[in-house]
Design a protein that fits this description.
The chain is an alpha/beta fold. It is built from 22 helices and 14 strands. The protein is 56% helix and 11% strand.
Length: 595
């Protein structure tokens, strides 16, 4: 590797020029920033204690020495305390030959070796179907699992289904009142959509009821308190928690409809889980743990019977753990789920992939677990991500104003078909092949558009913009990959069989630029793992695809008359395709061989 050679040159230079041995920690090597000329940069400041000279003089002396002993560098320049070295074209060819011989054996850092990591994502409620917000959640969680696995972590993908609580009882009550015994099969609806309709029906009826009470002179608080619908929903929850057979039977039936719908959506989305937890199980453990904490004086009970934890010493407020009637809240089940997961996996780290509106919740959860004496609580982390908005505004589940995941996936596939037909790209393919390609393009567009944005930022999603075949989009990267595969197929049809790469090839600047990008792949993946940021890989994939397309347009490949150069360019194309494909695989995106 070039960097290792530079470090060896620096050690030798300091020993010869300044008669001193170098501490390994003083060797700081990095890629040269785009604004400066060069390829590899040496940070000179830590070496000044050996030279006793100015940064500029030290850098110049080290640069002269390296050029004298290492033919892999052709020039250097000094910018304050930074020595920028320019790699020779011959060295870039040698570097590509090394990459080519490695094939698909990437040298990702084993930063996660033997470290057990849990990633929780999705976390749906069984009173409504998955929506656009869930899509970002699932895509982030799934991509993180692939990236961390690539860097040596032992990753388990988990899901917690929020299958109990007042919101579930609202759907149940509405079905009892308005459902007339209908089932999803009666209506032709997916089960999750079917149940979600009754959640919306409850909210409509509840709003109508409270508005009537307000018109009769009650305040909104009084109207909410006297609402018969809300009273009946709470009564259902109490009956469920007490094990009432009729209520539990209804709950099981409606949840089964929802699970069937969820499974279909997850399959369409291309995500899965190693284990699914259910709040209906873990809240019991959480409730027991809270009661134990109450006995130990960690928590306290108020006069109304509710149980709280006081976090004022941590500069936070009080947090409710059990309601007056003894029913559990979200925090209760999260305590139980965390303990159950640790018992199951003995994890080193657990990441909760949950939107940034829950930042406070997870701050409190970690504090409570630590107060309970769980040392492993230091290893739980909230992977907080921004919200997804639409051009027409925010989504509202209670009013039914959401973009369903199923509808969005269907829309993306339809849009992919329409745009492909407009461009005439697939006119000679059969219907089955077209359908599969449309699906890969549509889902690739959706996934890439969401994952190319830093997860910590809010984002605006525009379906048609995401599926453009030009610019920083999934279809552009996919099309580049399909173009590479087309070049390779044509080469095979003509009988080209590359056996090795000649060291006599003279590279042009564009080929050098492409090699520079290819060798960055390992570094990019490690950065994405360390920063938990899939967008680093997404934007790298686009940069690489763009660079390859420029090379493709500027230079002939199969038509090149020089056989050695032709062999090199075929290999350069194939390896570019390998890295583009692997980058997109880490994002959970399938790549079409033809487009």
């Amino acid at each position: 590797m070039m960097e290792k050679a530079v470090i060896k040159n620096l050690i030798d230079a300091v020993k010869k020029l300044y008669v001193s041995d170098v501490e390994p920690s003083d060797m700081q090597i990095q890629s040269t920033k785009k604004d400066f000329e060069g390829d590899i940069t040496v940070v000179v400041f830590p070496l000044l204690k050996y030279s006793g000279k100015s940064p500029e003089d030290t850098a110049s002396e080290l640069g002269e020495y390296i050029l004298e002993v290492n033919t892999g560098f052709t020039a250097y320049n000094v910018v304050k305390g930074f020595l920028n070295l320019q790699v020779s074209k011959t060295a870039w060819l040698d570097e590509f030959i090394r990459l080519w011989l490695s094939g698909s054996r990437y040298s990702f850092s084993e930063i996660g070796k033997d470290r057990i990591t849990l990633i929780e994502y999705s976390s749906p409620n069984t009173n409504k179907p998955l929506h656009l917000g869930h899509i970002r959640n699932n895509l982030l969680g799934y991509s993180l699992s692939r990236i961390l696995t690539g860097c040596g972590y032992k990753v388990y993908k988990t899901n917690i289904v929020n299958d109990r609580g007042i919101h579930i009882c609202k759907s149940m009550l509405a079905w009892q009142l308005f459902g007339q015994g209908k089932t999803p099969s009666d209506t032709g609806m997916k089960g999750d959509h079917f149940v979600g309709e009754y959640y919306v029906e409850f909210e409509k009826a509840y709003k109508k009821e409270t508005e009537k009470l307000v018109s009769e002179g009650l305040t909104r608080e009084e109207a909410a308190e006297q609402s018969k619908l809300m009273h009946d929903a709470r009564q259902l929850l109490r009956k469920w928690e007490s094990g009432d057979k009729e209520v539990v039977s209804l709950w099981e039936k409606m949840n089964s409809w929802v699970y069937e719908g969820f499974d279909a959506t997850y399959e369409d989305m291309g995500v899965d889980f190693d284990k699914v937890y259910y709040e209906s199980d873990t809240y019991k453990l959480g409730r027991d743990i809270v009661n134990e904490g109450l006995e130990k004086g960690i928590f306290h009970r108020k006069k109304d019977g509710s149980v709280w934890v006081n976090l004022s010493s941590d500069k936070l407020d009080e947090k409710l753990l059990l309601r007056t009637d003894g029913t559990a809240v979200y925090m209760t089940q999260d305590i139980g789920t965390a303990v159950q997961r640790y018992n199951d996996y003995k994890f080193d780290r657990q990441y909760y992939v949950v939107g940034n509106e829950q930042n406070y919740h997870f701050q409190v959860l970690k504090l409570i677990l630590k107060k309970l004496g769980y040392k492993w609580a230091e290893g739980i982390h909230h992977f907080s991500y921004g919200m997804v908005n639409l051009p027409e505004g925010k989504m509202k589940s209670r009013e039914g104003k959401v973009v369903d995941a199923d509808d969005l996936i269907d829309t993306m596939v339809i849009t992919a078909r329409e745009m492909s037909e407009e461009l005439g790209k697939l006119h000679d393919y059969d219907d089955k092949e077209k359908k599969e390609i449309y699906r890969k393009i549509g889902l690739g567009a959706l996934k890439y558009f969401i994952l190319k944005v830093d997860p910590r930022k809010n984002m605006m999603f525009n379906p048609r913009e995401s599926i453009d075949f030009n610019g920083n989009t999934g279809p552009f990267v996919q099309y580049t990959y399909a173009r590479i595969k087309s070049v390779l197929r044509k080469g095979e049809d003509k009988g080209y069989a590359v056996k090795n790469i000649s060291a006599d090839v003279v590279l042009n600047e564009k080929e050098c630029d492409l090699i520079k990008l290819l060798r960055r792949f390992n570094t990019v993946v490690v950065e994405a793992a360390e920063t938990l940021n899939p967008s680093v890989i997404a934007n790298y994939a686009y940069e690489l695809a763009r660079e390859y397309n420029q090379f493709y347009h500027d230079y002939t490949i199969l038509g090149e008359e020089n056989d050695k150069l032709k062999d090199f360019r075929i290999c350069l194309s194939e390896y570019s395709g390998i890295i583009i494909n692997e980058s997109m695989r880490l994002l959970g995106i399938d790549m079409p061989e033809r487009m």
